[in-house]
Amino acid sequence: MAGTPRRSDAPRADAQAERDAATSLGAPLLEIEAASVRFADAAYPALGAVDLRVAVGEIVCVLGPSGSGKSTLLRAVAGLQALDSGRVRLEGRDQAGVPAHRRGVGLMFQDHQLFPQRDVGGNIAFGPRMHGATREEQHTRVAELLRLVGLPGAAGRVVSTLSGGEQQRVALARALAPSPRLLMLDEPLGQLDRSLRERLVIELRELFGTLGTTVLAVTHDQGEAFALADRVVVMREGRIAQSGTPLEVWQRPADAFVARFIGFDNLVAAKVADGVADTPWGKLPVPPGSPHGEREVLVRPTGVRLVEPDRGLACTVAARTFRGTHVSLALDPATGPRLEAACTLREAPAPGAEVGVAFDPDDVVVLG
Amino acid sequence: MPIARNAARTALVACAGLFAVTACGSGDGADEAQSKQVTLVTHDSFNVSKDVLAEFKKKTGYTVKVLKSGDAGQAVNQAVLSKGNPQGDVLFGVDNTLLSRAVDNGVFAPYEAKGLDRVPAEYQLDAEKHRVTPVDTGDICVNYDKSYFADKKLDPPRTFEDLADPKYKNLLVTENVATSSPGLGFLLGTAAEFGDEGWQDYWKKLKANGVKVVEGWEQAYNEEFSGSAGGKKAGGDRPLVVSYASSPPVEVLYADPQPDEAPTGVLTDTCFRQIEFAGLLDGAKNPEGGKKLLDFLIGKTFQEDLPLQMFVRPVADDAKLPKLFTEFGAEADRARSLEPEKIAENREVWVKSWTSLVVK
Amino acid sequence: MTVPVVFFGIFFAYPVAAIVGRGLRQDGAWQFGALGEVLGDPDIGQVLWFTLWQALASTGLILVVAMPAAYVFARLEFPGKSLLRAVVTVPFVLPTVVVGTAFLALLGRGGLLDDLWGLRLDTTVWAILLAHVFFNYAVVVRTVGGLWAQLDPRQEEAARMLGASRFRAWRTVTLPALGPAVAAAALMVFLFTFTSFGVVQILGGPGFATLEVEIYRQTAQLLDLPTAAVLTLVQFAAVGAILAVHAWTVRRRESALSLVDAAYAVRRVRGTGQRILLGFVLATVAVLILLPLGVLVERALDAPGGYGLGYFRALMSADGGAFLVPPIDAVANSLQYAAVATLIALLVGGLAAAALTRRAGPFTRGFDALLMLPLGVSAVTVGFGFLIALDRPPLDLRASWILVPLAQALVGVPFVVRTMLPVLRAVDSRLREAAAVLGASPWRAWREVDLPLVRRALLVAAGFAFAVSLGEFGATVFIARPDNPTLPVAVARLLGRAGDLNYGQAMALSTILMIVCVVSLLLLERVRPLSRGAGTAGALD
Q: Which keywords, in A-to-Z order, does the entry hold (chain B) (predicted)?
């Protein structure tokens, strides 16, 4: 069970069964094989022999810190960045030598890159116009897309007067307008405020579901990736660190890097043997079937349970942070590094309080 | 860089189109037209009446194409540079200050024009080889503002010496000899008058007497000279200017209404004579037409057209001067001249010493 | 890239190399003796020194005087703005012979300063410097203003919100953004003043000589080709050094800027500061530019029988005698030549700028510099170079009219490149990529994305190229050409003759040249991008 799951048709545990059924039938739309790109003065390749397949109708989200090569990946698929080696196939056809404008993919840029000298309608109509749509068709398409992104009647507005959220919607409409076979989004919600982002990500997922669009998005925000994607691909220094459904990645991060990147900080070195991990925090129970030996062990905050002060690992509450649905506690244990715990508001002790900590084996993960 | 390549292709097509147009534009390149055309290379001041050219065409069947560039010096220099592969068939506008340069560089092919017997021998500076044919003469003389001297009840100066007379202090304006043709002519006149060494002393006196030197004839005549229309508007305050003997008649011709008397006069004893020549260019594509054109240039029609077109005097003795010249013009009295060889030899040195003497 | 390279190869590098080579090769062997001889001459040293320092001083002075104007024309709205912007460009096209005299009316005997304070500046270096300001004012106003008008004012606002004073915000945000345009303008002004010819002659008098004057004398008057060749090389070296300094200064300065439509950055005049600035600029323009031009017009109207259009009427007839055709025909000639020259300049310059935007490397930088060289090389060198270089089929263009617009375009191209390049480089390349993924081919992307953004710069460039061509005198006069004079040539010929009518007609024709220039520039300004806010239909075309 170690390593990176490679199932492109992983079912999601939510109400998308119908869609997922369609996805699992889909042939690969995009196949990337051993794609490599190296920039002249970089320490490691922007893309190091990356393999990735995206099925028709699938939403794949590439997650990674800045500099991990995720934008380069999109640019390579779009034909804006030449590969040093490897290949990109779309619907089975090798795209080597096919210029960007003939690939039939859409790309929504990080900061939207709306054409400043055109109004909203002009921006959205650009793609259809390039594909030879008549004026009438352009009109229809613009109106249709503006309705779709929730900005009906905005065609005549000047781009520079739009708010960030509106720009994002226009950029999306523009990218969708030529009906690309693959839509790529580069940090689609990057510059927006949190609440808007959370709302839009749901809208996007619904929209793509309705349209059946195949999507390859990149982001550095794990929340965004998990909410949007059928499958998450975590990248690090030009290589794929893990690929899987959001649930898989969340439940079983492939390594410490992935774990930290998706927000888990309770990581320690451990010696695992016979269902027990020997850590600085003491002996932790591990799920059956966990690998043995010198390993890193992750404890999800939800698996750090507060018990009576005189039981379990003795800790002092260093800080507590309200997270809306729960409270996040920073605990300084008697031994070992700081621990993060999650608990309900009612249970939350005040900073300075002495507590005991026990570990739930279901939330202890021995990393591969 | 596909875009650059695409655009380049478009541009190449456009360029090709442009050159096609060019070729058409200079479409006299067609052989047939070529033989019927004779090209005259000359300076920017060249001018001729339309009917005169029409008469040439009627007589010989040749159309004249005129190519102009810059002043006389430039026209000659261009001829020297394109020696052997000339721009045209005939060069007009070599004066005696430039003659040696043109002739010594082998720009011209010899041809004795028909009707040369009507031209006084003194103008035929290349009488043995006939590489050049004299066409006209013009005198560079000091002009004066008649009303200034009348108002001041002062007799205008008469000679070179007078110009250095304190009576006429701060009255003369002349041109930079390094760049201006009348300026150089005036210097050569003083050299002819006072000798190779003597002219420097004379100019020292002129300088002490407040001679003003400006860059070109346009500034001297139109800005500084109080007798010209431009000078009056610009508040020019110099009543003496180095100009041409023909300037007073020109003042009359281009006044509206025409006055009874020229507003300016000529100091006839301060003149340097320029003789202007034409010659058949060596390597001319149409030497036959060129020869016909040379004959025509000293023919009566062209000679009588000259004065009112270029304000010079004809060389042919049968050419009548127009009334304008006889009535308002002045004949140079003992016009100075120097042999072309001597000018060629000393020109650069003289210009240099003049510059350090007068300007610096 | 090919077209500009070929163009410059054939019409600049080859002719100039030919004439220099002719000078340095005697009897089939290279003669470099002249090199030491000429360079050792203290007079030449003096000329070089004067040429250099007056050019630097002029450039500095122009920047100081014209930068506020660039701001005012770019950012403030006031009545008569576009007319005034066209008018300040007029000096640029007028032949120095003409304007030099008009400028004397300001600085010389009986001039304004003489009347007021008994101060006469003619034959001083001040006259030269001020006249250079007069001639090159528009270079700064248009080049810098063109970019300034499109800079996003919010950046400056952001700096002010961060606690910067108005001036500090300008200095730390706007000025660096303007850097490339300022450097470009300064470079062009420097090259123009470095090769200044007429201004130095007329206003400075024979006491001052620039390298350009010396080259003209050696080539056109004395036919001392070896000396001329050495001087040309010296000029090359000096200009080359300046270009290198320029390239070094602006490298990496041209970055993607946040550009907006000019209309959004324009503000109504507000506050004392802006009023004072506007007042200062208008006063400068009035004294330095309108006054001398006014003198010209006044002289053109000052006919013998009292003020009237007498001289203008005389222009309509061929009886004047200076030409075979009515002098007014020169207007049509000039417009035709200028139109062709502008097209060539836009084509060559536009392609060069596009190529320079997309490529980097030493070759490109070298080519960038090469494009500027024509401004720093004597017109007589180029004119005579044409004569000996383009003399054999298939390129025997010596007798062709096309040489004139070609020579004019040579001077226009640097303007096109310099005005377009900063803006083109400022266009975010991701906008092009956005167009590409939406299905636009590179050429289409250029047309759809770059062109609309640079349209304003393109118009500025076209205006310059057109104005330069209209007023170009030096190269035109050195080229043997069929007898259809351009306006400046016609003016010069009229001025070269005595007589009231000739002088008056010269002034009248200069006035017409002014009007032609203003009208052409105003028409160019009218060709604006589509009016915005017109809805989808407008943007969809």
A: Signal
